[in-house]
Design brief:
The complex is a heterodimer of chains A (447) and B (343). Chain A has 447 residues and is an alpha/beta fold. Helices cover 45% and strands 12% of the residues of chain A. The longest helix of chain A is centred in the C-terminal third of the chain and has 25 residues. Chain A is globular. Classes of the chains: A alpha/beta (447), B alpha+beta (343).
C-alpha cells in the first residue's frame, strides 16, 4: 500500500459530517495554523513541500502564492476551482462528495495563509448534489465557529461561499472562472495582468484546484519537509488519479507520485489490469486534452526506462514521445478501441465548449470536428489527414487561453502515433465498424 | 522610454506602449508598412483587442533584462513593449504562415457575399484576405447561417458576416448610455444580438456601423444605394446641437446627393471622432453641411481610384488636367460634374 494523505479516511461512514471528520483528525491543521503559525510560515511550508498545482498545469503552488500582490487596504481572495469538467477527470467530485470538510479545512488554512477574508468555491454546475453537500458542510463549520468571525478565537475572520457554475468547461480556465464568478459571460481574460495582481473584481486573487487546496492540510499537519519526502524528484506528494476506460477497476486512486505506469495499470491495488483479458492499446494519461500514447510509449519512455506516474517522467521526450500528467484523468483503451472515433468524441467536446472569443479556437475546433466526421462516415481522403494536422498546428499557441491547445494536442498526438489508423479509415471505409478488423490491424502493426 | 526593434527598424517609445502602437509609429515616421493588421483592436475604445489574433507577432528577444524569446506568437495590440525588445512581423515567414492560418479561420464561416455586401470596397476582411491570406480555401463544409435582423430602423445586422470582434459591444458599452446588445451563445454559434430583439435606440448607436470591420452592421439608410467606390468621400461639418458630437463627418456623395454620412476615419481605419445619429441619419442634404474638401483616402483603397481627383475637379479645386504628353488643359469650374455634362 502506498501512502495516503487525502483519502485516508474516505471509507469511514459519516466522514462527510463534521462530527466524524473531527474524530478522525479533522481540522487539526486549522488549529495548528491559527494557533502556532503566521500566514507567511504556511506559505513557506507550502513552498518547501514542493506541491504543484493539481488542476493540470502543475505550477508550483508555493510560488503562485508568493506572487500574490499585497497592496494596502485592498482585499484579497482565494478561489477554489471546482469546475472539474475535463473528460476523464472526476477526482475532485469524489473528494468533495466523500470528504467535503477536507476541502473546507484546506480553504480556511489557505485563506489564512494568503490573508483572504472572503473565499469562494466555484463548483461545476452539473455537480448539483455536491453543491448541497458543500453547503451543508459549510453550515456545520459556521455553527462550530470554524468559519465566520474570530475563528477559534484567533481573531481571523473568513466567509466562505459556494458558487455554482453555469455549465461551461471554459469556466475551469482561471480567468474565465473569475469572469463567471463576477456574474459575467465566462470568457477568458487576456493576460497579463495575472489574477495574482488583478483577479476577482480587480483584486489580487489566487485560484487553486480542489486537490491542491486539500493537499495544504497534510502539508500543515506534517510539515513541508515531510511532505516533500513523499513522491519522486520534483513531483512531491500524492496525486488523485481518476482511472477510467477498459480497466477492471475504474475509480479514483490516491497514488504516491512515482508509481510505475505499468504497476498502476496491472496491479490489483489500482486498475487491476485490462478487462476481459484484452491487450492495452493506448492511454490518455492526464485527461482528454493531453496527448494520447500507444502502449509501448506509455509503459516505457523512448529511452527504454520504465515510465512513472510523475510530472517529469510522463512528459519525458516532449510531445514527440511523451505526454503530461495533467489533471490525472487516466483513460486506458484496449485493443478494440478506435482511436479515430475516440478522437472524434474529444473534438466534438472541444468544439462544443469553445467560448468563441478568439478566432483560431472558435473556427478551428468546429473544422476539426467536421473533418473527423468525414473519417467516421468513410468519406475522408488521404489529404484530409494532412489538413487535420495543419489545422491543429494553426490553432496551437495562437489562442487566448489553453483551450486551443487542449483541442489541438489530442488531434496532433493521434495522428503522430496512429496515422496508420486514419489511413485505414480512408482505404477501407467499409470495414471501419468491424471490431475484428481492429484486432487484425493491431496484430499487423505489432508484428 | 523603451527601445524596441520591429522588423529591423528601431524606435524609442514611451513605456506602456503596445507593440502595435510602436509599429504604427514606425510606419508614420518612416513610411514603411510593417504595422500588423488588426480586426478587433480599436485604439479609441478601451479593452478591445486580443480576440481576432491577426495582429500576432513573434518576439525574438523579450527585453534587455530578459532576452529570452517568447515561446508563442503574441497579440501585438495587447502586449506592451519592453526595453530592448526585438519583434518580427513581416520579416518572419513562420509568422506570416501563422497569420495566413488565422485569416483562413476568419474566412471559413464568412459567406463571401461581397458582390451583394455594402461593405465591399471598404471592408477590412477583404483587405486582410488579399494582403495576408492565401488563394482559395480548404474548407468544404456548410458555413454557419443566421437570418439578417433589423436592429432598430437604421441598422441592419448580418450575423453571417460577423467575425466576433466585439468592437460594437465595446462601443455601446463605452460611448452610449447603457448597452442593450451583446454576445449570446458560445463557440461558433456565438452571435451578436440585441437581447430579445431590443432595438438599439440611442444617440450614438450608429457608430457601431463605423467600427464594424466587416459588413455585419450596415446603414439601412444607405443599403444598396451605391457601391462605395462610385461615391465620393468629402469631409464636411455642421453645427450639431448634440454636446457630445463634434459635427465633423465624412459625406459620401454621388453628384450633389449625399448618400451616406459616416465618421472620419484615419489611416488605420479607425474613426477620428464618434458622431451622433442625427448627423449620420437625418442630415442628407448638401445644404445641411459645410463642405471642407475631398477626404484623404489611402491609395491602397479601391475608393481612391480616380474619385478624389474627379471630385476635386467637380468642386473646382483642380482646374487643370495634365495630358500624357505633359501639356495642361484648363477646365471651367465644375466641368466634370456629371450633372453638367448631361446638360
Amino acid at each position: 500500500m502506498s501512502k495516503k494523505l487525502l483519502l485516508t479516511y474516505d471509507h469511514i461512514p459519516g466522514i462527510n459530517t463534521l462530527e466524524v471528520y473531527r474524530q478522525n483528525n479533522g481540522y487539526k491543521s486549522l488549529e495548528k495554523a491559527l494557533k502556532t503559525m503566521k500566514p507567511d510560515d504556511i506559505v513557506e511550508e507550502v513552498k518547501k513541500s514542493g506541491l504543484r498545482g493539481r488542476g493540470g498545469a502543475g505550477f508550483p503552488t508555493g510560488m503562485k502564492w508568493s506572487f500574490l500582490a499585497k497592496p494596502e487596504g485592498v482585499p484579497r481572495h482565494l478561489v477554489c476551482n471546482a469546475d472539474e469538467s475535463e473528460p476523464g477527470t472526476f477526482k475532485d467530485r469524489y473528494l468533495m462528495e466523500r470528504i467535503p470538510h477536507l476541502l473546507i479545512e484546506g480553504m480556511i488554512v489557505s485563506s489564512f495563509a494568503l490573508g483572504a477574508n472572503t473565499s469562494y468555491i466555484y463548483v461545476r454546475g452539473e455537480y448539483f448534489y455536491i453543491i448541497k453537500i458543500l453547503q451543508n458542510a459549510i453550515k456545520e463549520a459556521y455553527a462550530a465557529g470554524l468559519l465566520g468571525k474570530n475563528i477559534l478565537g484567533s481573531g481571523y475572520d473568513l466567509d466562505l461561499y459556494v458558487q455554482p457554475g453555469g455549465g461551461a468547461y471554459i469556466c475551469g480556465e482561471e480567468t474565465a472562472l473569475l469572469e463567471s464568478l463576477e456574474g459575467k459571460r465566462g470568457n477568458p481574460r487576456l493576460k497579463p495582468p495575472f489574477p495574482a495582481v488583478a483577479g476577482l473584481w480587480g483584486r489580487p486573487t489566487v485560484v487553486n484546484n480542489v486537490e491542491t487546496i486539500a493537499a495544504v492540510v497534510p502539508i500543515v499537519n506534517f510539515g513541508g519537509d515531510e511532505y516533500a519526502k513523499i513522491g519522486i524528484g520534483k513531483s512531491t506528494g500524492t496525486k488523485l488519479i481518476s482511472a477510467s476506460g477498459h480497466i477492471n477497476k475504474p475509480g479514483v486512486y490516491e497514488i504516491e507520485l512515482g508509481v510505475p505506469v505499468e504497476e498502476f495499470i496491472y496491479s490489483d491495488e489500482y486498475c487491476g489490469g485490462i478487462r476481459n483479458g484484452k491487450k492495452l492499446k493506448a492511454v490518455v494519461a492526464g485527461g482528454s486534452s493531453v496527448p494520447i500514447l500507444p502502449t509501448e510509449l506509455i509503459l516505457t519512455t523512448a529511452k527504454g526506462e520504465p515510465r512513472l506516474m510523475s510530472y517529469e517522467s510522463l512528459s519525458d521526450g516532449g510531445f514527440a514521445t511523451g505526454t503530461m500528467l495533467g489533471s490525472g484523468g487516466f483513460i486506458a483503451m484496449d485493443e478494440d478501441t478506435s482511436i479515430v472515433k475516440n478522437l472524434f468524441t474529444f473534438a466534438r467536446f472541444y468544439h462544443h465548449e469553445s467560448c468563441g472569443q478568439c478566432s483560431p479556437c472558435r473556427e478551428g475546433t468546429g473544422w476539426m470536428e467536421k473533418i473527423l466526421k468525414k473519417f467516421i462516415d468513410g468519406k475522408a481522403t488521404m489529404s484530409d489527414i494532412d489538413l487535420l494536422w495543419d489545422v491543429q498546428s494553426k490553432i496551437e499557441g495562437k489562442t487566448i487561453c489553453p483551450l486551443g491547445e487542449a483541442a489541438a494536442w489530442p488531434v496532433a498526438a493521434a495522428i503522430r502515433h496512429f496515422r496508420h489508423e486514419f489511413e485505414e479509415y480512408v482505404k477501407n471505409p467499409q470495414s471501419i465498424h468491424d471490431v475484428k478488423h481492429y484486432f487484425r490491424l493491431n496484430n499487423l502493426v505489432e508484428a | 522610454m523603451a527601445k524596441v526593434t520591429i522588423d529591423d527598424i528601431t524606435i524609442d517609445v514611451p513605456d506602456g506602449t503596445s507593440i502595435l502602437a510602436a509599429a504604427r509609429m514606425i510606419d508614420e515616421q518612416h513610411g514603411t508598412n510593417i504595422a500588423p493588421p488588426t480586426m478587433c483592436y480599436y485604439s479609441k475604445l478601451k479593452t478591445t483587442g486580443g480576440y481576432c489574433r491577426t495582429c500576432i507577432v513573434t518576439v525574438e528577444k523579450g527585453s534587455e533584462k530578459d532576452p529570452r524569446p517568447m515561446p508563442k506568437p503574441v497579440p501585438s495590440c495587447r502586449t506592451n513593449v519592453m526595453d530592448g525588445m526585438v519583434v518580427r512581423n513581416t520579416t518572419s515567414p513562420e509568422l506570416l504562415e501563422a497569420r495566413a492560418g488565422v485569416v483562413e479561420f476568419l474566412l471559413i464561416n464568412h459567406p463571401l457575399d461581397c458582390p451583394v455586401c455594402d461593405q465591399a470596397g471598404e471592408c477590412h476582411l477583404q483587405d486582410l484576405g488579399y494582403e495576408n491570406g492565401k488563394e482559395g480555401t480548404r474548407y468544404e463544409f456548410q458555413r454557419r447561417e443566421f437570418e439578417p435582423i433589423d436592429i432598430g430602423d437604421k441598422i441592419k445586422l448580418h450575423m453571417n458576416r460577423c467575425i466576433l470582434c466585439y468592437r460594437c459591444v465595446k462601443t455601446c458599452e463605452q460611448i452610449t448610455d447603457g448597452r442593450v446588445h451583446g454576445v449570446i451563445n458560445r463557440g461558433d454559434h456565438a452571435e451578436i444580438s440585441t437581447y430579445i430583439q431590443n432595438a438599439i435606440d440611442n444617440d450614438f448607436s450608429g457608430n457601431v456601423i463605423d467600427v464594424c470591420p466587416v459588413g455585419a452592421l450596415t446603414d439601412r439608410t444607405f443599403r444598396f444605394k451605391s457601391r462605395v467606390w462610385f461615391t465620393n468621400p468629402v469631409d464636411a461639418h455642421r453645427d450639431c446641437n448634440n454636446e457630445k458630437c463634434s459635427g465633423k463627418t465624412r459625406l459620401w456623395m454621388k453628384g450633389d446627393d449625399v448618400l451616406r454620412v459616416t465618421a472620419r476615419k484615419d489611416r488605420w481605419g479607425e474613426v477620428e471622432e464618434f458622431i451622433c445619429n442625427s448627423c449620420r441619419f437625418d442630415h442628407k442634404k448638401t445644404s445641411d453641411w459645410t463642405i471642407e474638401g475631398p477626404s484623404k483616402i489611402s491609395h491602397h483603397s479601391v475608393i481612391s481610384q480616380n474619385h478624389n481627383e474627379l471630385r476635386k475637379l467637380q468642386l473646382g479645386i483642380h482646374k487643370q488636367i495634365k495630358k500624357l504628353d505633359g501639356t495642361k488643359i484648363d477646365l471651367g469650374e465644375g466641368a466634370l460634374n456629371p450633372n453638367n455634362i448631361d446638360k
